[in-house]
Amino acid sequence: MILDKINQPNDIKKIPLEEFPQLASEIRQFLIESLSKTGGHLASNLGVVELTMALHNVMDLPTDKIIWDVGHQSYTHKILTGRKDGFENLRKYQGMSGFPKRCESQCDSFDTGHSSTSVSAGLGYVAGRDLKGENYRVVSVIGDGALTGGMAYEALNNASELKTNFIIVLNDNKMSISENVGGISQYLGNIRTAEAYTGLKMSVTKSLNKMPSVGPAIVKKIHKTKSSIKQLFIPGMFFEDMGITYLGPVNGHDIRQTMRVLNEAKKVEGAVIVHVLTEKGKGYEPAMRHPARFHGTTPFDITNGIPTSSGNKASYTDIFSTVMRKFGDRNPDVVAVTAAMPDGTGLKRFRNMFPDRFFDVGIAEQHAVTFAAGLALGGLIPVVAIYSSFLQRAFDQVIHDVCMQNLHVVFAIDRAGLVGSDGETHQGCFDLSYLSLIPNMTVMAPKNKWELSDMLKYAVAYDGPIAIRYPRGEAYDGLEEYREEIRCGKGEWIYRESGILLLAAGSMVKTAVKIREMLKEKGYRVSLVNARFVKPIDTEIICEAAKDHGLIVTLEENVKSGGFGEHVADCVSTRKLPVKVMIRALPDRFVEQGNVGMLHQEVGLDPEAVCQSILEEEAI
Ligand SMILES: Cc1ncc(C[n+]2csc(CCOP(=O)(O)OP(=O)(O)O)c2C)c(N)n1
Ligand SMILES: CC(=O)[C@@H](O)[C@H](O)COP(=O)(O)O
Ligand SMILES: [Mg+2]
């Protein structure tokens, strides 16, 4: 195996070029076999095997810096930098991350996970390099999907005046997670298919070069001037017009070609885009046929690509998807907005049935939110479905464009709480804090699948900014009989005793049921309230509970700071209520990757740990 010879950075340079196709094939086989056991981002990684090999061959790591946008496609980079063994524990607790991590390797230059950051970070490196008089290369690798994110354009705009080398590799596979969307995607498509142009450009350059004495000089002049020869043939060359040299398109599965263009790019004094065409899922039939399904996959059977285990129970996303379909039928004003996540958020069904009322805006959470504000003013009821950690991007848009104008926008916030194997970058730890501090915003969290449905109906009938946050994965189907009508700012008594009150938000109601059983076994009297609203909190229930409970334990899957528990504690202290408050929430640190159950134990949010802390408090 040639792959066995790759044990540390730059080992690839010892492999003869003729053996590269074999090495590429071994890397693919390795990825398919490993990910069939662990799961992970297969399709994107299969697509960049040759591109990564080419980059590693023309760059010198760790001196040179490669920045992977989103970072979900960095697996070959990990293999080529001596981390092949890490794949056994890929995305597992304390195992190798699925994203670049500076703490994992000197060859990882920037931690990513969220999209469209690579050009900004790369440009920062370049400025640092130049000011310090250093001499390394910087390459940002950005996908066509990530290039739909506004931040990438802010950075390109900034990079256009650069006078020193900065390589931006545009990995264009025509796909985001789903099909890529928007004008830029179309524009790239035009370039991709402009073979006539490519051929013409080559032949003009060749002919000029052949002209003795004047030819090469003209070619050089054309290359030097901003008005490149390309513009004669392709009107409005977007990147070149901005002042960024464009090279390509090049077949990213042809290593020699890719290396040749990258070597050309190294000579450019300024920012240069290398447009590389690749195929998502390359080399594994099921992934080529279904790149979206294999974007991020659970373990699967290699022979047919079918997942080896699938949960039988509906997820919260499934419930959201079903309710949205019903809204589609029943309320023509309801429209759906996603930022490039129709699959992940469950909006695909709505898209298929009501395409005119479905908007995929690309990886553009900020735009999605302000766009929704416009939709609301245009007389529609936008439901904006965004993962908790990605909505962080649009904090100001939620404040300035939605809440300040008190607009009726429904935020369906999926992946709230700990998400598992994606780790720090994707945990939904902050939304209760960052949303509940905004005036006019209402924030809800359902205890189970029926309540998610009820809350969505409530939110669509409401008037004003309103958010519902729910976790990744299986929806809780306990407590079915508790289905009191939803009323603004009102919680729900599930068990009413006295002594200890468990006051739980959303996903923590299920945990609270278990905690209560444990405490009951120890002889305690324990009440349980499902908070339902994190903003406004139910002050009435808190005041009432203070009369016959000595301890209120708040439970939430959100950081303590600014979260549900602190709002409850504030209510108790401002009203001088005679009751102690214990807050159980996520810690003030970034929570790493791993199985969610294990992570709950690690942060002390599992039933046993919470029960133990209550017993200790009661013993005082
Ligand atoms: C801010 C943000 N929004 C959404 C996502 C989810 N996401 C991860 S990868 C991806 C698609 C990226 O497409 P592209 O850059 O073309 O890479 P490819 O998967 O095609 O290799 C999306 C939408 C994210 N990581 N960050
Ligand atoms: C890389 C990325 O951001 C997405 O692919 C993410 O991993 C999807 O997460 P879910 O599996 O929770 O949809
Ligand atoms: Mg892509």
From TrEMBL:
It catalyses: D-glyceraldehyde 3-phosphate + pyruvate + H(+) = 1-deoxy-D-xylulose 5-phosphate + CO2. GO terms for biological process: isopentenyl diphosphate biosynthetic process, methylerythritol 4-phosphate pathway; terpenoid biosynthetic process; thiamine biosynthetic process. Binds 1 Mg(2+) ion per subunit. Binds 1 thiamine pyrophosphate per subunit. Keywords: Isoprene biosynthesis, Magnesium, Metal-binding, Thiamine biosynthesis, Thiamine pyrophosphate, Transferase. The keyword Transferase applies. GO terms for molecular function: 1-deoxy-D-xylulose-5-phosphate synthase activity; magnesium ion binding; thiamine pyrophosphate binding. Pathway: Metabolic intermediate biosynthesis; 1-deoxy-D-xylulose 5-phosphate biosynthesis; 1-deoxy-D-xylulose 5-phosphate from D-glyceraldehyde 3-phosphate and pyruvate: step 1/1. Thiamine diphosphate binds at H72, G113, H114, S115, G145, A146, N173, Y284, E365. Pfam families: DXP_synthase_N, Transket_pyr, Transketolase_C. Its cofactor is Mg(2+); thiamine diphosphate. GO terms for cellular component: cytosol. The keyword Magnesium applies. CDD domains: TPP_DXS, TPP_PYR_DXS_TK_like. Residues 314-478 form the Transketolase-like pyrimidine-binding domain. Mg(2+) binds at D144, N173. Its EC number is 2.2.1.7. NCBIfam families: dxs, PRK05444.2-2. Homodimer. Belongs to the transketolase family. DXPS subfamily. Catalyzes the acyloin condensation reaction between C atoms 2 and 3 of pyruvate and glyceraldehyde 3-phosphate to yield 1-deoxy-D-xylulose-5-phosphate (DXP). This is 1-deoxy-D-xylulose-5-phosphate synthase. It comes from Lactonifactor longoviformis DSM 17459. The gene is dxs.
